[in-house]
Amino acid sequence: MKLKIPENILSLKAYTPGKPIEELEREYGISDSIKLASNENPLGPSPKAIEAMQAALENLHRYPDGSGYYLVNKLAEKLGVAPEQIVLGNGSDDVIGMLTRVYLRPGDEAVMTSPSFLMYEIFVRTVDAVPVMVPLKNMAIDLDAMAKAVSDKTRIIFITNPNNPTGCHITTREFEVFMANLPPEVVVVLDEAYIEFANDPECLNGLSEISDDRPLAVLRTFSKAYGLAGIRIGYGIMPAEMAAMANRVRQPFNTNILAQVGAAAALDDEAFLSKTRELIHTEFEFLKTELIPMGLDCIPTQANFFLIDVKQNAGDVFEKMLRHGVIIRSMMSYGYPEYIRITIGTHAENIRFLNALKTVLK
Ligand SMILES: *Cc1c(COP(=O)(O)O)cnc(C)c1O
Q1: Relative to the CA of 92, which ligand 1 atom is closest?
Q2: Of these four, 52, 81, 200, 345, which has the most CB atoms within 10 Å of its CB?
C-alpha cells in the first residue's frame, strides 16, 4: 500500500500486553498459574457490581446512556463535587486521551516522568506533541526537576500518585509548593489510579486540590481497588470548564451499559473496598517479613504492588517464575534491571509466589 503515515505515528510502538494466561500455560506446559503482574484486585470484582451487571444484561440491545447520568451523579455526591466536574472514560486511559486532544497541538510539550505509565507517551505522540521525560530520583517523583522541565511550549504535566511502577508517593505539601510555582496555563493531570490503597496521612489526595481557578484534572479508575478492570471504566474530576471541553472530544457512547451499572454498584460496596484495602496492607507486611530475611530489599509502597530488588537479572527471574506458573513483571525495560514488580495477591497466591521465588533465587 502507498499510504503516507505521519512521522509521529511511525514513532509509536504498539502497546505490548502480556500473552493471555491460557496461551502461556499451553506454551510452558503449566496449569493453575497466578497473575501478579497487572495490579488487578485479587478478590475479583465487587459482588454488588456483579449482581448489578447481571441484571443489566437484558438491556444490552440498547445504546448506553451517553451522559452516564446515574453514575456521574452518584460520583458527584460521593466526592462532594458538581456533576458538571466529572468526565467518564472507557477506563481512565480514555480520559487521558481526551485531555491530550483538547490541550495539545503539534509541537507542544507534555512533561512526564521516566519511567512512567506508557499511555501518556502514546497519547501525546498521537497528537504530534512532544513528551519531555524527567527521570525519577531514588525511584520517587522529582517535582523540582519537573518544574524546571516546563518551557513556554509546555501545555500538560502528568503526575502519577501513588506512582506506577515504583509505588512511591508525593505529599500534599510538596504538591502545593509545586502548583504555586507553575505558569497558570499549564494543565496538571494527576493520575490517582491507586489512591484508594494509600494509607500514609501525608500522601496527597488530589480531590481537595481541585478548584475552579486552576487547571488541575484528577484521574481515578474502577480498574484497581474496585476490581473492574475488564469492563473499562474510569473518570476525571476537574473544573467544570475543563470537563465541558473534554466532553466535546469524548466519543458519545464511550462507557458501556455494564460499566455504568457495575461502577455505580461498586461505589456502594464499601465492605468490598475495606476488605480489599485491608488485604493489601496486611499482605504487604506479610510479604516483607518473608522477603527481607531472604536478603531482598522491598521498596515502600502506597499502592497494591511493590518493587523487589532481586539482586540479579530480573528478566531471568521473570522467565523462571513463569515456569512455576507465577506471572510477575520484570523492571528491566523500565531501567531497573535487577528489580521485579509484584501485585499483592491473596494470602494463598502470595505464599505460592514466595515459594517459587525461593526456588528460583537459589
Ligand atoms: C492501571 C492504571 C491506570 C488505569 O487505567 P484504566 O484505563 O482506568 O484501566 C491509569 N494510570 C495508571 C498509572 C495505572 O497504573
Answers
A1: 8
A2: 345
